[in-house]
TrEMBL record:
This is DC-UbP/UBTD2 N-terminal domain-containing protein. PANTHER family: UBIQUITIN DOMAIN CONTAINING 1 PROTEIN-RELATED. InterPro entries: DC-UbP/UBTD2_N (IPR032752), DC-UbP/UBTD2_N_sf (IPR038169), UBTD1/2 (IPR039869). Residues 14-110 form the DC-UbP/UBTD2 N-terminal domain. Pfam families: UBD. It comes from Daucus carota subsp. sativus (Carrot).
Length: 112
């Protein structure tokens, strides 16, 4: 478990990227999306794992991909896929991030 991120069969490190475009079942506004994100991050430590890893994952999720790469490497986070949706800490604790904290849905609307 000494690696920082998952690697391809040739030993290449996967670069962190935003998830592919996705759509919520219902149309939501930016403020509703922000509320969903805040609720997730407020409750995330209660799902298990270490608080400092949750904080690093939040910082990575809110950063551009290059900075996110640096954050997860510095925190010792092991990324299963390149989009940060499933990660592990060095002790093997699993951290699952929903798409709505990683990127905006395609059916996001502006409030009037």
């Amino acid at each position: 478990m000494g690696c920082v991120v998952s690697s391809k069969s040739k030993g290449e490190v996967k670069k962190i990227r935003k998830p592919k475009p996705w759509k919520l079942p219902q149309v939501i506004t930016q403020s509703q999306l922000m509320q969903m994100r805040e609720e997730f991050w407020d409750t995330a430590p209660h799902y298990g794992g270490r608080t400092e890893i949750w904080e690093a994952l939040r910082a990575a999720a809110e950063a551009d991909p290059d900075l996110a790469q640096t954050i997860v490497e510095s925190a010792g986070v092991i990324v299963q896929g390149a989009d940060l949706s499933i990660c592990y800490d060095e002790r093997g604790a699993k951290y699952e991030l929903p798409k709505y904290v990683l990127s905006d849905p395609t059916n996001l609307i502006q409030a009037r």
